Amino acid sequence: MQAKETLFADLVQGRAQQFQVPLYQRTYSWTEKQLGQLWSDILEQAELIESGEPASTHFLGSVVLAPSPQNEATFPRWLVVDGQQRLTTLSLALAAIRDHVAGSQPDEAERIDEEYLINKRKSGDDHFRLLPTQADRSQFASHIRGHEAATTVGGSVANAYQFFRRKLVAVGDPAASQDVFRMEQAITSRLTLVAVTAERGDNVHRIFESLNNTGLKLSQADLLRNYLFMRLPTRGEHVYETRWLPMQASLSNDELEQLMWLQLVLDGDDRVRRQDLYTAQQQRFERRETGEEAIEAYIRELHRLSSLFRRLIHPEEEPDQLVRAHLHRLNEWQSQVTYPALMLLLDRRERGDLDSAETARSLSYIESFLVRRMICRVPTNNLNRIFQALPGQLPRDLPVADGLRQLLSSENRFWPDDDELREKVRTAPFYQFGRWHQRKSVLQRLEESHEHPEPVDFAAAQLTIEHVMPQSPGDEWLQMLGEDVADGESTEELHARLQHTLGNLTLTAVNSELSNHPFERKQDLLHGSHLEMNRRIAATESWGAKEILARADELAARAIGLWPAPLRGVGRAERSRDWQLAHQVLAALPHGTWTSYGDLAAFIGSGAQAVGNHLADTAGVVNAYRVLTADGKVADGFRWAPEEAGGNVRSRLTADGIHFTGSGAADPAQRLTADDLALLLGGTGDDVDGAETTERADTGGPGEQTRAERFFHQLNVDDSPETVEAVRDVFAHWEELGGWIGHGSGRVTTSAFLMLGDAGSPGRGIWPLTLYPGSGRGGTAEVVFQHLAGREPFTDRALRSELLRRLNEMEGVDIPEGRLDLRPNIRLSLLEKDANRERLFEALAWFRDRWEARDLS
Prior knowledge:
This protein folds into five domains: 2-211, no CATH class; 220-411, no CATH class; 420-562, no CATH class; 580-680, Arc Repressor Mutant, subunit A (Orthogonal Bundle), CATH 1.10.10.10; 691-852, no CATH class. It is globular, with a radius of gyration of 29 Å. Helix 3 (84-101) runs antiparallel to helix 7, helix 15 packs parallel to helix 17 (383-393) and helix 32 packs parallel to helix 35. The protein starts with a strand and ends in a 5-residue tail after the last helix. The strands form four sheets. Strands 1-6-3-4-2-5 form a six-stranded mixed β-sheet, with helices on both faces. A six-stranded antiparallel β-sheet has the order 12-13-14-15-16-17. Strands 10-9-11 form a three-stranded parallel β-sheet. By secondary structure, it is α/β, with parallel strands linked by helices.
């Protein structure tokens, strides 16, 4: 047996050879959790390559190889005893890079193919450098051969390939652009493997077991603590009692580790990763030949900084009122990426370099930077790099606050100016970006700007975000909105474009039974609100497009006053309309789905005509031909983008799994709305009414409606008694299966979850369905495929597909395969039929059985 560190390129390049995954191996099973971690490692290594800094490679894991029984002297074949998941994933990532550049750089695509993926002069199975287990072979081979359209539906291999295609589209974003070929270099020459090569007769399975033996690992903080006190033979006990123990008592182990990392960043090491903390600090001490006095000084400084760090996680400990208010809002924003900058400011203040007023001004720039970027939908994936580099980049010839503002205003920081902020408040679907607590925080801050003499206690108030014009409008709403339709836009398209914009959103704690009713009835509720923003809405005579846009302009003016703008000039790269979001979501379209120009326009905050022009004029947009008119037709003026020979659109759509009706229109069941598009990019999967906030059905304070009572009260408003009884029957049957009913915290929109798992820790559980009252349109059961994709054992797409098949056996249910990545709805009224309830009970029992049989080892 031989073991050596190697790189993917060194392993697979060179002479023709093949790595075979034995038939007895499990199939490829990486999910987005593992893929996402690998992608982060690839991006990080690509950044390090681009910076030109010498840096350690990233250890990916082991590969255990043994000679194949089919081995030949002229064509070596190896059995992959362990490591097939890594090798398959890296191969698919390289195939995605190849296909990403194939249109613009075909020679580079051919090079990637021949260097890493194929044996050019071999045919049949021998053509492939990697040959997966038989169950995965066909789909893997199709992607390696470049036959993407034939295999984009289903399977973990296809999902992994599509994951990388989506991510490669995203890296073109100007706010965090990356060189694709740097990523190839990172994959092939910066992710290290330990290759264990066995000889014939070696017990490779024993090797596999020893490599995969797991135990509780020491944290970086544990390792560094042990190292420090081994270097304090005479002073260790005193330092431990006077400095380390008090610090350890005030911070958790995770917080202490974060503080140690922050200290390295403040000292100028802006490239150190938290997982490399121990090695980096050890090297610094050993380079300087550090003695006991220096080690003690380091721990003393760490102890001093610990009291400052506590103010970031416990803002109430900050004595200055203005600074405390900013720290509190940043803490609620969950902005841990800003910690290097926040620690720098608090440290500089303690050292006397700036006072509390200047500290508060500096914090206002950081807060504005985050809030404006969120409102304007700037991606967050470069924030970590921006703030980690900030301590070393802060100008020395300016006051701290001015230097910070200048630095955040500079090119490629993408701090939106006032003009962009005004435009995005009017047009961007605010409700579909950021996290729910961030959206709520923005609305709360806008309300507080009115400086009401009797302000609302937001900590105690149970407020949720409310759409004034509802998401499911009745005829009266559509009639009111129709008065403002112009330029060939339908009422439905105008509604989709405006419903999620900031001008149509407010905070409320009113009962949801009126949330979908006409504006006149909403006015009565809003008149009695303690919120100034609601009283202003109630004072308007109607609520159509003109009123929504007028309120948007008023809110934009307040936002400009609250969150200061970046400096002009300073080498800024001003942002035009950012089409990158459209490119990303089109690349994410699942097999068998299409969308419309109006849906895509509503999702990005644009107009349908502008979307059509952009797609026609821009080459290389993945799936651009899958954007159709609202009635599912290819637009009359459709043309392929320059230099693209796309062929017959209908044939391409059919190959992508789009079905057509007798009238020649694409199947409307396969259409993705603007809300569906938001889900594809994870836009609204974390709303406050999620199951992480569920409580058991009988939860409620003295004299209050329980959540269950509130749910059924709302369900009774617009569903028949038969439907309500059918829902009660489903709940009773679920409890007989060993589940429990949880109810979300929403008051405006209640919900019920069919939960499995520990009732005391619902966030750790799992649920197949979420039920919602209809608020005027009839209740629905949401099938949470998107949630299940991240929970074992349903990370296996085949299991989610089987759940879909079982649900589709219900009469009136026909969920397309393309919605396995989304959250499709089933009408609760369908449960009135006994046969449908029986089929649902069978599907729920199957779901329960699969979950209970999951592998917990």
